[in-house]
């Protein structure tokens, strides 16, 4: 299970003046930071449906500037206001990536959570995060990314005192998302690693596993990449953090969740086969272990949430 270490307190430390390069409308490193120049992150995947609790919840994602696309998938912000309402549970089935997360009280570098990732939200708050590309965090990890899997570390443990300064500046930016992004991008640019072709290679292979539904086995992915199975496993351990089998199964499960979210009738044996299962009972047991409900139970939750949302709008 992931553990949480509280970052060192930075309150009371003198603030660094916001430099021109940190401003969201600046040209940083010769690259425009304007949002229209950024890649569209596309729709989110892997977010589990939850029981509606009322209150306000907002999730925004912004792509990186072009010069950071090989390392960063996107920047994200989550804010909520549950005053007058009970706690809300937010769950995801994580992607094979590392996140840098800066909250109002606790910040961390979060390795891949192998199971369901759960957070209980109360009151009001906001969090800012950097979602790295598969393989994109390895140059900063100074070792195999698999050493971070299932773990959460204070940012200072990875980036030193300058990591604490980033935390302070991002928090001081409040809910000004462009400024927070500019600060994070300036921080990463100052630490850009030397080019490593394996960073790009690992990202391309994971992208293919995500997009090609015909990839059901490690051998399928190894054949597409031109690597031996053993070489592929070594690459994933060092650069991605989990094995290729984990990645394949996770993306096929994301597809199953998207299918269930449509509300259309589901052919369960066909869904199981699409995930590489030839035994439906095995598929159902694994689905329940990861999602917390059987496929049929999750489908009912989705239908109930949709009905309540429509009733609220009416």
What labels would you give this structure?
314 residues; alpha+beta; Arc Repressor Mutant, subunit A; 2 domains; six-stranded antiparallel beta sheet; two-stranded antiparallel ribbon; 11 helices; 10 strands; 40% helix; globular; disordered N terminus
Could you characterize the architecture of this molecule?
This protein is α+β, with helices and mostly antiparallel strands and 314 residues long. The chain folds into two domains: 20-189, no CATH class; 197-313, Homeodomain-like (Arc Repressor Mutant, subunit A, Orthogonal Bundle), CATH 1.10.10. It has eleven helices and ten strands. The protein starts with 26 loop residues before the first strand and ends with a helix. Residues 1-32 have low confidence and may be disordered.
Q: Give a quick account of the main beta sheet: strands, pairing sense, barrel closure.
A: 6 strands, antiparallel
| Amount of helix | 25-40%
- What coarse outline follows from CA principal-axis ratios? globular
DSSP, total strands: 10
Name the poorly predicted regions: 1-32
């Amino acid at each position: 299970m992931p553990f949480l270490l509280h970052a060192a307190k930075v309150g009371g430390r003198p603030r660094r003046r916001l430099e021109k390069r940190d401003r969201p409308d600046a040209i940083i490193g010769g690259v425009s930071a304007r949002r229209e120049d950024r890649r569209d992150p596309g729709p989110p995947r892997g977010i589990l449906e939850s029981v509606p609790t009322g209150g306000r919840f907002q999730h925004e994602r912004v792509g990186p500037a072009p010069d950071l696309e090989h390392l960063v998938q996107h920047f994200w912000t989550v804010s909520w206001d549950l005053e007058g309402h009970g706690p809300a549970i937010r769950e995801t089935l994580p992607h094979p990536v590392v996140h840098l997360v800066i909250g109002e009280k606790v910040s961390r570098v979060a390795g891949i959570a192998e199971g369901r990732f759960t957070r209980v939200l109360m009151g009001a708050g906001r969090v800012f995060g950097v979602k790295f590309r598969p393989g994109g965090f390895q140059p900063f990890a100074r070792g195999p990314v698999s050493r971070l899997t299932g773990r959460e570390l204070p940012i200072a443990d990875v980036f030193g005192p300058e990591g604490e300064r980033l935390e302070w500046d991002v928090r001081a930016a409040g809910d000004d998302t462009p400024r927070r992004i500019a600060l994070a991008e300036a921080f990463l640019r100052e630490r850009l690693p030397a080019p490593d072709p394996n960073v790009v290679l690992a990202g391309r292979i994971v992208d293919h596993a995500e997009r090609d539904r015909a990839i059901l086995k490690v051998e399928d992915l190894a054949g597409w990449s031109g690597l031996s199975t053993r070489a592929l496993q070594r690459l994933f351990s060092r650069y991605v953090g989990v094995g290729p089998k984990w990645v394949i199964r996770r993306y096929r499960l994301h597809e199953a969740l998207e299918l269930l979210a449509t509300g259309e009738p589901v052919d369960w044996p066909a869904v199981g086969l699409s995930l590489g299962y030839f035994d439906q009972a095995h598929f159902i047991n694994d689905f329940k272990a990861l999602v917390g409900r059987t496929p049929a139970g999750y489908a009912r939750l989705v239908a109930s949430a949709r009905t309540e949302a429509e009733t609220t709008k009416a």
